[in-house]
User: Which sequence fits this backbone?
């Protein structure tokens, strides 16, 4: 069975510091995609970053980067220079098969001024 | 572009009432999805539509029906609402297999 696990229900970070959110997954497929989504209090789901499984290079989008460890089935999100606007729920997601997207239970990130 | 539009934003139903949640996308996406979000459980797939004219069950389909009216629209119907269906419902769409999901802003449904 395909699963996505986020073991940190809540994290805190000081403004301007760096924080890493963890995600592990399990799939028997070789062709898959991984995503991080952000959900601020407005409830909107916003794509933060994505990673293709067959690409060795870790994806980066401005202050957001991932550490993709394929053998360990780990996909962590690093947020550098944290800002107050980064406070949100963060969801890790796995696209498995042709149509299915499986989501983790989320990590609530608090940013302290 | 409006992206994915869901209506209504909020709804309160009594047990046993029926209602339809509407979803439309203007991005010419092929696949559309309905998820529910409950505290501590992430997003769970209710139904999806791979393409116009097809629908398939997801992880939690019981108590729901869907209609892919055309390429743009994908509705979710609750025939007889139950308190267990109190949740936030998200519609999403994607262009192709390697694309991310694009989400609507959600509908908060309360069943009393």
Assistant:
């Amino acid at each position: 069975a395909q699963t996505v696990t986020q073991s940190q229900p809540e994290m805190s970070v000081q403004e301007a510091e760096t924080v890493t959110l963890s995600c592990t997954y399990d799939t028997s497929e070789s062709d898959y995609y991984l995503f991080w989504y952000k959900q601020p209090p407005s409830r909107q789901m916003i794509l933060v970053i994505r990673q293709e499984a067959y690409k060795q290079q870790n994806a980066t989008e401005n202050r957001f980067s991932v550490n993709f460890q394929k053998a360990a089935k780990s996909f962590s999100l690093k947020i550098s220079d944290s800002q107050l606007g980064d406070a949100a729920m963060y969801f890790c997601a796995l696209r498995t098969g042709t149509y299915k997207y499986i989501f983790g239970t989320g990590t609530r990130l608090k940013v302290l001024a | 572009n409006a992206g994915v539009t869901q209506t209504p934003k909020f709804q309160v139903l009594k047990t046993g009432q029926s209602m339809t949640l509407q979803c439309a996308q203007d991005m010419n996406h092929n696949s559309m999805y309905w998820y529910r979000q409950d505290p501590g459980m992430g997003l769970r797939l209710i139904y999806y539509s791979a393409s116009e004219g097809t629908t398939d069950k997801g992880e939690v389909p019981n108590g729901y029906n869907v209609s892919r009216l055309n390429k743009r629209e994908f509705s979710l119907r609750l025939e007889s609402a139950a308190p267990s269906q109190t949740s936030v419902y998200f519609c999403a769409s994607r262009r192709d297999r390697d694309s991310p999901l694009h989400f609507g802003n959600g509908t908060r449904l309360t069943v009393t």
Chain A has a mean pLDDT of 95. Chain A touches chain B at residues 4, 9, 33, 35, 42-45, 47, 50, 52, 91, 93, 95, 98-106 (CB under 8 Å). Residues 37 and 48 of chain A are 5 Å apart (CA to CA).
